[in-house]
Write the structure tokens for this entry.
Amino acid sequence: MLNTRRPRRNRKSEAIRAMVEETRVTTDDLIFPLFLVDGTNKKIEVASMPGIYRLSTDLMLKEIEECLKLGIRSFDVFPAVEDQYKDKVASKSYDSNFFYLKALREIKKQFPEACIMTDVAMDPYSSDGHDGYVKDGKILNDETLEILGKMALAQAETGIDILGPSDMMDGRVGYLRNLLDKNGFAEVSIMSYTAKYASGFYNPFRDALDSAPKFGDKKTYQMNPANRTEALIEAELDTEEGADFLMVKPALAYLDIIRLLKDNSALPVTAYNVSGEYSMVKAAALKGWLDGDRVMKETLLSIKRAGADIILTYFAKEFAQTLK
Ligand code: PBG
């Protein structure tokens, strides 16, 4: 005798399927990471990220304008810095005449309605290619905080909306919050890279910024991929220290961590669908092994279903285009 309950009834037509759909990804959920280079009229594809470019300010303004029309309103801007401008203390990160800070001012001037996020970490500007200050082969925590503080204030001064400390130094959220408040930037938000793992999925990003570590790895500051409960310690500290958003990074191999933070925090949880996750889908789609559009949508859906409120993703624009 067949059971009278037949789940297939709720799948029998497009209208019913849509009615019972539990999770939806919208352009409001997405933040689009962008790579900025110095100069004008530059558009250089990142070899390991087909469809993603390093853009000079003029072309980035156009890109943002196009995205706004598609409903993407939030952007995370990363600078690709030439080697000659890198040093031990990331001094270009707080030089207000440096192209990154000038571009941020220009972006906010032209698009005050756009939500602009910046990255707070030393690696793009560091001759050591590390997120923190290096001495005798070690990453020094508290010395790094001072540099991050200068960087954060310089970014806040450009009028950006959200700071994204991605460095994983201890105490940085509280340090930055305090400094921002003291300097009249109480309105600038902090999206903390809360559970950022020492991951193999970041390589294409390091190609894009030319920011790979010159020695060693990032295991003394980024988390061990084997650890779960440690993410709760990071979340607790970020919350106490005043973060406005928590983040899990990468996303796909860490869906359980996204759910863990969502269930244990009242703060919005962001997931970073990182460069390597993008590249894997693109590479397989270019070979004709996967349907790229379909897998993109399924990927974003899985991250949202896991509990992410917000997704940082290189697919943002493409996803928005498929909705039109
Ligand atoms: C560096 C930073 C990284 C990413 C964002 N900020 C790389 C790293 O920690 O080495 C990675 C993003 C991606 O892979 O898409 N502070």
Observations:
- The first helix runs from residue 14 to 19.
